[in-house]
Design brief:
alpha+beta; 3-stranded antiparallel beta sheet; two-stranded antiparallel ribbon; 2 helices
Length: 133
Amino acid sequence: MEKGGNPPPYGWSNGRTMQPPPAAPPSYSQAVGGVGPSSPYTPQYSPSSGPAIVTTVVPVGPQPTHMICPSCHAEMNTYTQTKPGLIAYISGAVICFLGGFLGCCLIPCCIDSCMDVHHKCPNCGAYLGRYRR
C-alpha cells in the first residue's frame, strides 16, 4: 500500500464484481420477536400487616425448654418425650452379640442416658427439635 494512493477497495471481489459487506446482525427485538429489555426487574412488595416476627433457634436439651413456638407463636415450655436413640440400639446389638440375647439386649432401651429427647409444642403439637445423647 502506498502512502499517497487510494485506500483498498471496500468489500470482497468475486471475480470482476465487487460485493457490499454483509448486513449488520438483527437487533434484539428482531431476533427474539418481542419487546426488548427496558429496565431491571423491580418486584412490588405488598405491605405486611404489622411488624415482622423474627424467630431464633433455641437449643433444646434433656429438660423442657422455655421458648416461643414458631408455628403458633405461643410462649410455653416444651413437651418432652423420650425414645431410644442410636446409642441404645448400638449398645443392644453389642450386648446381643456378646451373648445377652435372652432379654439383656433390651436394657439400653430402658436407660435414660441412652434415650433421645424429642420436644413438641403443647399448644399446637408442632415438632420443635431433638436432643441426641
